[in-house]
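The methods section describes the discrete structure representation at length, but only in general terms. The central task, working out the structure tokens from the amino acid sequence alone, is never made concrete. Nothing conveys this as quickly as seeing an actual entry. For illustration, here is how one protein appears when written out as sequence plus structure tokens:
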Amino acid sequence: MKLKIAMGLLLSGISAASFAAVSPEEAQKLGQSLTPFGAIQAGNADGTIPPYEGGLRTAPEGFEPGSGFWVNPFKDEEPLYRITSANMAEYADVLSAGQKEVLQRNPEYYMDIYPSHRTAAYPKEVMDATIRNATTCDTYKEGLALETDCRGGIPFPIAKTGNEMMWNLLVRYNDGKFGTTTSASNTWVVDRNGTVTRTATQSTFVERPYYQIDVPGRDPELFYRVYSLTKAPARKAGELTGLMDFLDPTEQPRRAWSYTPGQRRVKLAPEFNYDTPVGSMGGLELFDELFMFSGVQDRFDFKLVGRKEMLIPYNAYKFYFDCDDQFRTSHANPECERWERHRVWEVEATLKPGMRHVYSKRTYYLDEDTFGAGLYDAWDQNGELYRSMMLGGVQFYDHDIPYVVKHTIFDFNKGMYGIINDGMDGGYKVLTEARSERELNPEAIVSRESQR
């Protein structure tokens, strides 16, 4: 059954004189030919992408609420076909540069393509706010800042610019209203010889105050907050790091901090930004490519190329929760991966003249239903493919959250890869109430977490 959204009440109060991203007439497509979050509602011509019918909101048999693990609703499905280096040319138009590179370098590697399922589902309040945003939300300061009135929904369901689409990625509904935690999130780095190193085990807290409109004391400019406590390796145990991001980063830059037991004080960490490598990830990722992009959009020109069909990691329940044998010498175990055909938004980022960065160009392929799942490629200053990321998610069907965190990243210069945010040791927890600002003060976090 097609998803139907009543639009009259949502649009009737919007003045034609509003400084709007799109016209009320164009916004009428939401809930009709477009989903409330701007994806094409219909399937594609050959049926390989199904129509959107509201997402996955029913738990399969065997699911235990609160366990931290979500049962795979598609565990009995078989692949439709397989892509290898031998036949990849037939699928060149739906593969990224990074996928092609992995296939070409590794003849034993394969991609199993499964039936596509559009499982993304959101709470009604988020969809209503997203529809509202279509005609009221806007960026300012040349796309670098987002208006606080956009809070509560995806800002640009009908995006017109690259900056708008990147804001959809930055403030996506990924962690529910009150946040998520992990007790043992592992980061694994595999060198060119196949040696696997666990570079970090961390407990984490992530929240998106952008969706906490009715939570007292929240700064309306604050849209993202995260902190991590390192548990392993032993030499790093007890270290804490955190950061906060704001809707106008030109006025309120990222507020990052760190704590080490030896120094016993909280220090500001302005270096947790741009192309600084992330230490806990073995330097495989930069701070501004966490989850494909993180931070300020000031060093690159972002161009919205358009919508296209790609093969992306999707409904990755096995990779998240049922893959004890994850590693191969030069890539993740393909038996654990699931690839599906979906529509994505392509954004091309080019380094601005006079700006410094290790990358000259970056390309993002963002799933039209979640704005978080997808693919990412980055090129060095010589125009050579440097890094690629494959980021798949799972639908938390008991919470209406399209959750996207665990991923694979490749460093082609060093011949290394990593598996990041692996929660198989302890699972993931969705919070059902907000933490107070007092609890989330860095000094309070250190006092509380360092006692554990």
Observations:
- The helical segments are 8-12, 24-27, 97-105, 124-136, 162-170, 317-321, 442-449.
- The chain has one domain: 81-117+156-449.
- Residues 81-117+156-449 form a domain with the outer membrane lipoprotein receptor (LolB), chain A fold (CATH 2.50.20.10).
